[in-house]
Amino acid sequence: MSEQALLQIEGIHTFIGQFHILEGVTVSVPRGSIHVLLGRNGAGKTTTLKSIMGITPPSQGRILYNGMPINGKRPYQIAQLGIGYVPEHRAIFKELSVRENLIIAGRSSKDFELKEDFIFELFPDLKRLITLSGGNLSGGQQQMLAVARALVPDNQLLLIDEPSEGLAPVIIETLMEAIQRLSDNVTVLLVEQNFRVASKLAQQFTIIDEGHSVETGEMGDLVSNQELIQKYLGVA
Amino acid sequence: MNNEFQRTMIIVGIIFVALLGTSFGVAMASGNGIGTFGIVIVAGLFNAMLLFLVAAGLSIVFGLMDVLNLAQGAYFTIGAYVAWQFHHAPMFAGIPADLRFVLGVLLATVIGAILGIILERGLLQPLYERPIFQIVLTFGVGIVIGEILKAIWGTAGKQWIEPFGLQQGLFVVFGQQFSIYRLFVIVIGFILIIAIALLLRYTRIGIIIRAGVEDSEMVEALGINVRFVFTGVFTLGCAVATFGGAVAAPFLGAGLGVGQGFLLGAIAVIVLGGLGSYEGTAIGSVLVGLAGQVVIQVTNYANSINIDPETFGGGSFLAGLLNYSTDVVGMSVWSSLTPMILLILVLLLRPSGLFGKER
Q: Domains of chain B (ranges plus CATH)?
């Protein structure tokens, strides 16, 4: 295990029902970095994040967070260790107001008040939308809310799944800027299909293909390796 | 306020006006005076509150946990027996009757909460991934509770024979006198409706419950122990049902089937109001409670007159059918059918119920 790794995933296997989705995924996420999981649709990126969170617990392998194994823990216990999860399709609570969506994410009622200024500085739009229900927000606003929700508690690691999916370019820019700023304080493990976004944000990458982690390294090296990009990501 | 909500409130308003208008019209036509209208309102609200006490737990538990607790009626029955026993036990005869009633209700509520924890922790938790098994389990638990109650108290129903102050005081609505106890139950019911609404709307636990109704997996991923919340909500639901049985005991007595009737009505209420919708459950309870009394009033009136076949232009079949339906089928049957009939009518207009979302 790398000395600085905040999160170390070692050869995990995960089943969903009878389907063997992850067949040996290994990822090392250094503290204070943005690490991106790349791969085609259905490769196992989202399942990797869900396995870390304990939503689809792995049947084999180990997941170490701060050097401590977190396999077998329930999702709420994993979240309480300081891991924030921003799922694919946002999963914000549509019947709850923006404020309630943020309050619920805190470990206590006071957490949101303590982080309020920081969150609204990062996403000023949310301040004006605070009383609206989540279901009335646009896709971009919902995504901002989903990321903001993960910032309410004092998380050390954020797992962010496909933040740019279905968003307009201008919104993507705003989100990228916010995630970049976040990485000053927290470590980010990102799943991103948009290679341009991924390559701008992340310092390290891991490529997952058919449930296996097949390549890992510095993002700069990947950007210059067109053959690898073409082979696993299909990006010209 | 969105258009959907406005449309729903218009439908609710129309149903209320239709029910109250029918009751008022029949009261005037029957010559019994406006007092019968008062009876419909008071008796309807009284039944509505008892229905709500069973339906509230059923609705919140179903919304949050996807568990339809078919033992809820049995918990209501337990409440009735415990309150009856406490009130009529010779060893507690020295306690003033009013205080004895209140203590009996509290004792029943605590017992309901304890039994709720036992059912959720001991039996339901292992079955969270198996919804069909949960339904069978809660149905079975209802039967087992019934058999235990039968073993303790026998098959004969227990009448509330020792009155207390609340039952003896009177209040008047539209010239008709009612026991203050009925007003007490109605007020307690409304207080609970508002208290639970405030809890759901303004407290952190309420926000967690509402979020859990939408997406309990995401709530857990935010660091909240959802199973602990499940236990709390399930316990609250059972406690409220036993509270309802205890509060109703002076009127209904304690009998093995007392909760089952309310369970069927409560299932109709939560579907009619919209699965998982608290406001739908509250409004649905009032609608069903009032509708049941309106049907009794209309059936009584129809029973008192013999419909002349010539009224329908010689269509003796229709007149015969109407006479049969009121004289032979009788008011109690129509009253029991009312929740289901209302449910069918609402579902024809709103397939997801009044305040329901597509699930």
A: 2-349 (1.10.3470)
